[in-house]
Amino acid sequence: MRRRNQLVAFALAIASIFTFVAGPARAGGPGKWTKLSTTSQKADGFDQPSAVRTADGELHVVYRIKPATTTYNIRWVTISQAGKMLASGNVLPSNWNTIDTELVLLPDGSGGLRVVFMGTQDTNPSNFFSTGSVYTATSANGQAWTLPMVSLAQHTVLNGDFGAAAELNGTPVTAFGLNATTWFHEGTDASAPAGAPDGSIMQTSTIDNEGEAVATNGDGSVWLAWWRWTDAATQGYYVEQILPGQGSPMEAPNSGNKDEDNSPKQRVALAARKGGGVYMAYCSPTKTKPCAHVSLWKVGAGKAATVPGTTSGNARLVTLVPGGAGRLWILWWDSVKSRIDVVRTGTNGSGFGPVLSIKPPPNWALFEHLSAEGSSGRVDILANIVSGAAGNPVEIWHTQLLPGMKLTAKPAAFGHATGATVTFVVTDAGQPVAGAKVACLGHSGTTNAKGVVKLHFGTGTASGPHVAVATKGGYSQAKVTVKVT
């Protein structure tokens, strides 16, 4: 996501409403990849999907598509809580001259949805939607879309990265780049470009920023994050409060190194935790590795936590989304093992459950972007890939993954001549899991409020390693080996 060398103009068309075409539901669910659509017939569209789950449980996804050789549209898809693709359609009634790759989908504050984007309808400078500004489309149900005649930026001909968020009252806040400056704008304006001025972050250098992301904390404060590159003195990940009052930039701990490029290669992984606090996940580099490990940082804290499973140096495309009950999901692409790794924190945003992995979509050739939504208990994963099929089309895929549990046994070994009572403990990010069934060698029991169950194995128990399995609805199963000598 390096800054574009050429200026890009953007726009939309006059306000109107668009309907959808529903097709047969496609099966989904944990571990099953569903292709949502092809975004481009050749490898030239590295589009980052954006998703919001509404109160009815449905997941709404938007992303840019290129249905013709030189024009673009915005695709919407709805997915059930169980992971089935329900319906899809285009947000715009016809194709457009340009649309930026980084659309953002937001709740609009009244139960509906808002997609915010940069684009141009045509090259007519008198067209309201061809000033190169930021625009929005809204929908009450995520399927029929309206294009209000409003803009969301005073600056035009924007050539940098784009991000957006919504304040608690539903007012959109946009962030976008122009040359070496990151700007932000609050609210909508009936003129294009907007009459109200844009704000800008406090620049600490004149070097380009990258991967701008915005998050709204539970206290109503809005935060903007970015990655600064090339400048050896200030390269790294930064965050700044921009509303209601503007603060100063804060550099994330151990987030920069002049010797290695640890660019996010997509939007910076920034999220507001349900229950309070803004968090950032990012690659911490060394002099020889762009991502020695992934760090999880509560903004303002003196140090960051190391995310388990990331110390191999292979993590890329780091993604962070809120989960239910105050948890956070962290995802990344393992560039050597060619898989997506996922871990979830405890309910207070700290501690980690087991790292789970899932293979990429079938027939992938390049893995370009990773997005997610985690509010349902499971995590919905969205992947942008370049397919290995003829012509190398660009595709968007969806799957789900259930959170993991950890199962321990004490004693982990005993003799067959004596037998033993084994205490099994089931936890989720260090917190007990009650109601989990643990089974081993024909014995089974259910964990209590402390996540504990005891199983007795009598004398004469068969020698050898035996696998105990813990299961509970809404979780991936956990295993531990008990050795009988």
Record keyword descriptors for this entry:
mainly beta; six-stranded antiparallel β-sheet; Immunoglobulin-like; 485 residues; disordered N terminus; Neuraminidase
- N-end to C-end Cα span: 56 Å
> What portion of residues is helical?
under 10%
In CATH, the topology of the largest domain is named Neuraminidase
Oligomer: single chain
- Class of secondary structure makeup: mainly beta
Average the pLDDT over all residues and give the rounded result.
Answer: 90
CATH architecture of the largest domain: 6 Propeller
Question: In what range is the share of β-strand residues?
Answer: over 45%
Query: What is the count of DSSP helices, taking H or I runs of 4+ residues?
Result: 0
**The CATH C-level class name of the largest domain:** Mainly Beta
Count of all domains: 2
Low-confidence stretches: 1-24
Tally the beta strands.
Answer: 40
Radius of gyration: 24 Å
* Biggest β-sheet strands, sense, barrel: 6 strands, antiparallel
- State the shape: globular
SSE layout and pairing:
Elements lengths: L16 E2 L2 E6 L7 E7 L9 E4 L5 E7 L7 E7 L5 E6 L7 E2 L4 E4 L5 E8 L13 E6 L5 E2 L15 E5 L5 E7 L2 E6 L12 E2 L8 E8 L5 E7 L7 E8 L6 E2 L17 E4 L5 E7 L8 E6 L6 E2 L8 E8 L5 E7 L4 E6 L11 E3 L5 E10 L5 E9 L6 E8 L4 E5 L2 E2 L5 E9 L2 E2 L4 E4 L2 E4 L5 E6 L6 E8 L6 E7 L1
Parallel strand pairs: 33-40
Antiparallel strand pairs: 1-12, 2-7, 3-31, 4-5, 5-6, 6-7, 8-10, 9-10, 10-11, 11-12, 13-14, 14-15, 15-16, 17-18, 18-19, 19-20, 21-22, 22-23, 23-24, 25-26, 26-27, 27-28, 29-30, 30-31, 32-34, 34-35, 34-38, 36-37, 36-39, 39-40
